[in-house]
Amino acid sequence: DVKVTQSSRYLVKRTGEKVFLECVQDMDHENMFWYRQDPGLGLRLIYFSYDVKMKEKGDIPEGYSVSREKKERFSLILESASTNQTSMYLCASSSGTNSYEQYFGPGTRLTVT
Amino acid sequence: GIQVEQSPPDLILQEGANSTLRCNFSDSVNNLQWFHQNPWGQLINLFYIPSGTKQNGRLSATTVATERYSLLYISSSQTTDSGVYFCAVERYSGGGADGLTFGKGTHLIIQP
Description:
CATH architecture of chain B: Sandwich
Distance between the termini of chain B: 40 Å
Number of strands of chain A: 11
Oligomer: heterodimer
Mean pLDDT of chain B: 95
Number of helices of chain B: 0
Number of domains of chain B: 1
Structural class of chain A: mainly beta
CATH class of chain B: Mainly Beta
Radius of gyration of chain B: 14 Å
Order of helices and strands of chain B: EEEEEEEEEEE
Largest sheet of chain A: 7 strands, mixed
Structural class of chain B: mainly beta
Strand content of chain A: over 45%
CATH topology of chain B: Immunoglobulin-like
Order of helices and strands of chain A: EEEEEEEEEEE
CATH superfamily of chain B: Immunoglobulins
Helix content of chain B: under 10%
C-alpha cells in the first residue's frame, strides 16, 4: 500500500514565524504535491515537484516555498506565517511512470495566531 | 484552467437508497479521480478513472471522456458512506503531472 505521511496532524504557530510542513512517501514516487483546503474555496494546488530539486508553482504559491532534497521528502515552507495561512494542508504523491493516480497524506491542520 | 463542477452539492438519503453523483469538466483530461473525505480530513481514493467503468463493491464509476463527465454510483447506502465526495482532474503539461483541480464536492448524508 502507498503510504504518505505528514509530520504533524495539528500545528499552532504565531504570526511571523517560519513554519516547516514535512511530507514523506514510501513508494519511490516521482511526483509530489502540496494543496490547501479552505471552507468555501475548496482544495487548491500550492506547489508540486516532479523530481528531486525540481519545483513548479501551482495556483496559489504566494507566501510559500518548497524544498525537495530527497526523492521521498517534500517540504512546504511558510517563510513568515500569516493568519490567512490558517488552513488544512494536504500532501500527495504519484508515480508518474505507471500511473498518475495521486495518494494523499492525512493532512496538517495549521492555525496561525 | 480546467473547470470542474459537481452535482448535487448536497444530498440526503435514507439508508439503503442508491445515489448518483455527477462531475462535469471543461476540457480534455489525462487523470480523473474520485475521493471520499473522512471526518478527520483525509482523502480516501475511491477510483482512478480517466475513462471507462470500474466497480468496487457497492461503488462504481463511469467516465465518458468524449463528453467530459463522470458519474459515481453508490448502491445500498450505509451511514458510513456519509461525508464529502470529491471529483478531481488533471491535465498533463509537457508530458508530466500538473496537479489536480478539484470540484467543490458533494456532501452526502445517509440517515438511518
